[in-house]
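Could you help me review a protein record that somebody else here produced? What it holds is a sequence and that sequence's fold in token form. I have pasted the whole thing underneath without changing anything:
=====
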Amino acid sequence: MARALWKGSIAFGLVNIPIELHTAVRNHRPKFRMLHAKDKSPVRFERVCVRDGTPVAWEDLIKGYEYEKGHFVTMTKEDFQAAAVEKTRTVDILDFVKAEEIDDRFFETPYYLVPAKGAEPAYALLREAIRDSGRIGIAKFILRDAQHLAAVEAIDQALVLSVMRFADELVDTDAFTFPEAGVVRSRDLEMAKTLVNNLAAEWDPGKYTDQYRENLLRIIRGKMKGRKVELESPSEPRQANVVDLMERLRQSLAQSGAKPSRTAKAKSKKSSRKRTRHAA
């Protein structure tokens, strides 16, 4: 088993369960180095002072907050220590909330909580209590000197901790303009729903693969062998506009093998006649 990122315990009420934190995701995409185009040598990035253009050693660096363009407040180690919360090794569950009440935008990075030796019975007890309750534990914990909000939920046989965003980290939708539901015509909606239902499927994460990663690896392997790899160029989908939206929906249904309802067909033909008349 991989080395734990963090060791501590889950605490809720007076119960304390020793656990280890392990990453639940991994990045398979190839990693690249920046090279000098002339001789293909790796490029080293240096910390350079903007004013005098000279490199700066790590020991000569301090942190600053830019409150105006070009104006900084410098921060010392003592300032950060004063702001820091107590460094505990505990995932403190504060509340248990209904899972469906949590907006997906709050979720960030998942981790596995693995029971320490001897903690298996208590771990299983908490897992099954969470599962049967249909609720998710909302907790706070310290990771890499920073406090995080987190969700603790039961997934299969594991307790999964997902780092969450705090409420003020989400951009309010009021900053944007979105169309009202009233702009949707019933005949358009019926056709669109037919397409949605025709594409309905059981969730199978294994069927969705990272085509970009696969293409990159094919090109890399080809270059290692001194040959060029020809990849099929994907066709750029045409953006549907208001005029041809129904036609594009109908074409999508035809490609997927679905048949729109009789009402949708009639309304589509009526809409098509209207479009022809307007075009004329």
